[in-house]
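Retry 2 of 3 after timeout on previous attempt. Resubmitting structure tokens to design endpoint.
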């Protein structure tokens, strides 16, 4: 499923969750190396674990980040 993100360079994040486990994550836009790294680290983990790790990470003065936006998507849609 594709979700819009706000306040970051990425435009969307595609997330697949099955039985509370993150199966796949793909960011559309943003810093490719960083978003690929975050996606790979999230895959195979429980939604709650990833939210607790990524929630609240900021990118500069934006007040959010791509990892934080992933945590928001997961929290709002899968918890």
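Retry 2 succeeded. Sequence:
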């Amino acid at each position: 499923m594709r979700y819009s993100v706000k306040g970051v360079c990425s435009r969307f994040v595609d997330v697949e969750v099955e039985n509370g486990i993150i199966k796949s994550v793909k960011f559309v836009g943003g810093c490719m190396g960083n978003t690929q790294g975050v996606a790979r680290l999230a895959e195979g983990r429980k939604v709650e674990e990833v939210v607790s790790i990524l929630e609240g990470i900021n990118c500069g003065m934006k007040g959010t980040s791509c990892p934080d936006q992933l945590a928001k998507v997961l929290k709002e849609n899968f918890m």
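Attempt log closed. The chain has one domain: 2-78.
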